[in-house]
Automatic annotation (TrEMBL):
GO cellular component: spliceosomal complex
Domain of life according to the entry: Eukaryota
UniProt name for this protein: Pre-mRNA-splicing factor 38
Keyword Nucleus: yes
Coiled coil: none
Biased composition (Acidic residues): 184-201
Keywords of the record: mRNA processing, mRNA splicing, Nucleus, Spliceosome
Swiss-Prot/TrEMBL GO biological process terms: mRNA splicing, via spliceosome
Source taxonomy: Eukaryota, Metazoa, Spiralia, Gnathifera, Rotifera
């Protein structure tokens, strides 16, 4: 009785909603501890609380084919068959990523092709990280956009065979869907426009540089008298000028000799020696005078 589908539940794909999951996996879920303890007597409102508590996504793991809590909640939702508005709220929930993943997986099983493309394609812009429990009972890193891409492209996800999905181009030809507009296209357009503006800005200063590099015209003053041409050969030097040049050279040499530091140092040394000699002479005279007095 606890594993039966609700009487008011509609048929999906012409069968009972629980039959979308294979019989072997269903039996494993019914025998699992999580199904018996946490999924018993759940309603559409209480499923939200259990979905918030999820810490990973996964199908069947381990050697004993143990079902993950994520897959147990999916089967419980197929058993309850909540309203479409509740599933849409699951998908639009941005705070809890595992609630969004649960709603997306349930929509992929139950929804029509138009509804699947309409509600799942916007989730390509969600790049959050999720924990994925693989068959070997080990955790892997999986992004939300990768998970959505698997739901839209692959036939089997989390060990569950997905219903067949109609191609998008066929729906576009039948005017059931509008052409998809990706966020990356807008970024590419923005980059192209920014690149064009940068090229235009680079061209503008180049023009200014070329204008500044042009040589300026030299204006001639026609009223100013022209300079007389210089003689071809230099004028010969007179004997008076030669004598005056020699005198200047001799004076400059004498000045440089007088200013030479070697001579100054010699003078200083000689003056010191003369001063010492005078002191010695005076001392000698004083000694002689003392001797004479004693005598």
């Amino acid at each position: 009785m606890a594993n039966r589908t609700v009487k008011e539940a509609p048929t999906i794909k012409g069968t009972n909603p629980q039959y979308l999951i294979e019989k072997i996996i269903r039996s494993r879920i019914y025998d699992s501890r999580y199904w018996k303890e946490d999924c018993f007597a759940l309603t559409a409102e209480l499923v939200v609380d259990k979905a918030v508590e999820l810490k990973c996504i996964g199908g069947v793991c381990g050697a004993n084919i143990r079902p993950a809590p994520f897959l147990c909640l999916v089967l419980k939702m197929l058993q309850i068959c909540p309203e479409k508005d509740i599933i849409v709220e699951f998908i639009k929930n941005e705070e809890f990523k595992y609630v969004r993943a649960l709603g997306a997986f349930y929509m992929r099983l139950v929804g029509t092709s138009v509804e699947i493309y309409k509600y799942l394609e916007p989730l390509y812009n969600d790049y959050r990280k999720m924990k994925y429990l693989n068959k070997n009972d080990k955790y892997e890193l999986l992004y939300m956009d990768e998970f959505i891409d698997q739901l839209l492209r692959e036939e089997r996800v989390l060990e569950v065979q997905l219903p067949r999905l109609q191609r998008r181009n066929v729906l576009e030809e039948n005017n059931q869907l509008e052409p998809r507009q990706s966020v990356l296209d807008e970024d590419i357009d923005d980059n192209e426009s920014s690149a064009e503006s940068e090229e235009e800005e680079e061209k503008k200063p180049k023009k200014k540089e070329t204008i500044s590099e042009k040589p300026k015209k030299k204006w001639k003053d026609l009223d100013k008298p022209s300079r007389s041409p210089s003689p071809r050969y230099a004028r010969s030097v007179s004997p008076r000028e030669k004598n005056s040049k020699k005198r200047r050279r001799s004076r400059s040499r004498s000045r440089s000799k007088s200013r030479s530091p070697a001579r100054d140092s010699r003078k200083k040394h000689s003056s010191r020696h003369e001063h010492r000699d005078k002191k010695d002479r005076n001392r000698g005279h004083d000694r002689e005078k003392e001797k004479r007095r004693r005598d």
